[in-house]
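Hi U.,

Before I forget, here's the chain from the pilot set. I'm dumping it here mostly so it's searchable later in email.
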Amino acid sequence: MSLSDRKGARRHAPAELVSTVEDLEYARAHFGGAPGHNAVVMTMGALHEGHATLVRAARERVGPDGFVVVTVFVNPLQFGAGEDLDRYPRTLDADLELAFAAGASAVFAPSAEEVYPDGQPQVRITAGPMGDRLEGASRPGHFDGVLTVVAKLLHLTSPDLAFFGQKDAQQLAVIRRMAQDLNFPVEIVGVPTVREADGLALSSRNRYLSPGERRTALALSAALFAGRDRLAAQEALHARAVALPADPGRAEALSRIGEARAAADAVRAAARAVLDEAAKAEPPLVLDYLALIDPADFTEVGDGHRGEAILAVAARVGTTRLIDNLPLRFGATQGAAS
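Structure:
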């Protein structure tokens, strides 16, 4: 039954495509879950297993009687000059099949005219200093466009929970900050990155890669894993040094590894070595940035950093730009060395 055909509608969550704000409001009002049991997963379509993981996570949180709406909207505000708005894949039929199989109650797939009926909005949300770094520096205005549409979709869907992938770590961070700073009554939930068997992070843009380009693109995840492994080795060395008796031998061991003060640089160096090799491949990887940043503000971590960090990378392979990241924790074995 179409949501537009309301005669005799029963109160249960439909598996339905809606394309207008009016029908979305009707679906939310008549089929929405109890308070605390309404979720949204925002996408730009071209859905893959990573998106399915988000939908399943949302369904698990809200339960079988909750309401999960998946939005499918290629937002023009977040594409800059020369970016792939027109090229961005649009696969709505396949998206519907995947979304409903993963547990969506409804898919909201509006046109640009439905979302922005008066044309591009005159008033927008700015991401502030955090939005000017890394992805924001490479794609000026990108996060302003992201936050503007996310804010609008949060108003339209009125969820208790909103699910976003950690692969877009900076996007997740600025959305969380917006929700906090502007008092949005929603919990922003991050879901770990989903990877293919060879380590490549799932992305709608992966379909643009030729077989040779895909082989080169594996350097992104390989670089992150190299950085992670270097940190683990550094932490293990430090733990062994801490366990030594408090004598000159212990002091020498701690000095030799710099009490992990060089750990950040070691992580960066290990990752960069992989990327430098990929730059010599055919086709080559063209690095945009490699950064080891504090997730609180996306500034580079310094010497002696303790706690959470994100190792992030962006690069082009052929005409396709890819991003990836890996969460790390510094100082997990410091203990008595502090």
